[in-house]
Amino acid sequence: MSGNNTFIREIKTRHLIMIAFGGAMGTGLFVGSGGSIHQAGALGTLIAYCVASVIVYSVMLSLGELSSAFPNTGSFGDYAHRFISPSAGYVIFWMYWLNWVATVAVEYTAIALLISAWFPDVNLYVWVALCAIAIFLLNIFTVKLFAEGEFIVSFIKVFAVLIFLLLGFISIIYNLYLYGFNMTFANFYSANNDQWFPNGFSAVFMTILAVNFAFTGTEVIGVAVGETKDPRNAMPKAIKATLIRIIIFFIGSVFIIATFVPMNDARITESPFVTTLQIIKLPFVENGLPYIPDIMRFILIAALFSTANSGLYASARMIWGLAQKKMYPKIFATINKRGIPVYALLMTMGFSLLPFFFELVIYIALQINPDFSAYINNKNIDNMMESLITVSGFTMMIVWTSISYCQYAFRKQYLASGGKLDDLAYKTPFTPYIQIIGIFGCVISMIGVYFDESQRIAIWGTIIYIVICYIIYFATKNKFKN
């Protein structure tokens, strides 16, 4: 183990940009968008993605200023500690950790579901185990290996989405030629007795949180900047290069999916990208594109693997941040000679597998039940993924709210102390309006999901988790000072 407990700055600007892409393009987009369409309909989902885009845009602008001024691996927890209170910082550390632990668990499941289409006779949890082992091995070596791996896989997924957008828009134009406007865009207004919003407009609000989950991961660059070369210059470049591209990719992809996949055919356990490629018609290709669904499935597996990889990386740094601020046992602040917080990584890895451990217990207990196969592959998988997405999205909204507030507090303190805006490496425009938009959007997202009765248990569970975090903080705040 290294003696100075410092990270090695081996992440470059190109890595930082692709880490932002890689963190964001995961289950929320590639799989979860199907569940959003099923709940809110085509138009409702598109509106939800537009609203979420405004929210993530405003939060990332705030993050750009904070992370350029304080390029700390502790990131969001460190900002809350500085500009709200030590107790708030403690809770934000744990909230962001919980977000990624839940997200990584979702990625394991999504990858397993995609692979099971090729190997239907193999139990899903075999693929979960193999995926978890591979991700752990990538994270246990140098951060440079992690960054290069993320760069390559993220480039593949970005290229794949570009191809998807190209094929999708060609097919839309071809359908307009063959069938006209009304039939081409029938999903937007003809579902469920010609209603614009089949499940009511309230379903749009209930969907926004799940859609925000799709954008989760963009903020990972705020963590990675602590291990980045020349963070003062790298972070502004990454923010500017990332935001517009992600929004275009997300809204463009969802528009194409909503155009071709009927509301009742969209499910949370199936990738709407694969379904879309099986449906679309292209000129001069009568029988569809050969092997495209399988190729896309492979790319989706790589994309989700990338997000899980980023998630394990970010959540382990949160545990390190707690220990580094002497709010957690100091052993978790230990960094080895390769710049890896090994004990924080091991702890996070273990917790990311807890949902599957409980499922395994159920599996063993119900071996004598002949209906168990349907139980484990359908209803339980759906419910577990929806609950994990809700928990992850809800916790992320709290973290994003803290980012917006902390940027406002930092700017106010900075100017009061005589600082000049021109000296900042990155300046959040339209302060404080951008922060108001970010906070208001996050709050609306959290309120909206409460109206979905099936997800209230996940919300209440998260609230109880926050209360427990505060109780533990005040009970242990002096325990780890020495």
Outline the structure in words.
The structure is a single chain. The protein is mainly alpha-helical and 482 residues long. It has one domain: Amino acid/polyamine transporter I (Up-down Bundle), CATH 1.20.1740. Helix content is 73%, strand content 0%. The protein contains 18 helices and no strands. It has helices at 13-24, 27-30, 32-69, 75-83, 86-116, 124-140, 143-184, 191-194, 202-215, 221-224, 231-260, 272-279, 292-324, 342-352, 354-365, 372-416, 433-450, 456-476. Helix 9 (202-215) packs across helix 17 (433-450). The chain is globular and about 70 Å long. The mean pLDDT is 82. InterPro entries: AA-permease/SLC12A_dom, Amino_acid_permease_CS. It comes from Helicobacter didelphidarum.
CATH class group: Mainly Alpha
Helix % is over 70%
Structural class: mainly alpha
User: What is the rounded distance between the termini?
Assistant: 20 Å
The average pLDDT score comes to 82
Low-confidence stretches: none
- Name the overall outline: globular
Number of domains: 1
Largest sheet properties: none
Instruction: Tell me the number of helical segments per DSSP (H or I, 4 or more residues long).
Output: 18
Write the CATH architecture name: Up-down Bundle
For CATH, the homologous superfamily is named as: Amino acid/polyamine transporter I
Task: Kindly state the number of beta strands.
Answer: 0
Instruction: Tell me the radius of gyration.
Output: 22 Å
CATH topology: Amino acid/polyamine transporter I
Order of helices and strands: HHHHHHHHHHHHHHHHHH
Membrane topology: Multi-pass membrane protein
GO biological process, one term: transmembrane transport
Keywords: Membrane, Transmembrane, Transmembrane helix, Transport
Protein name: Amino acid permease
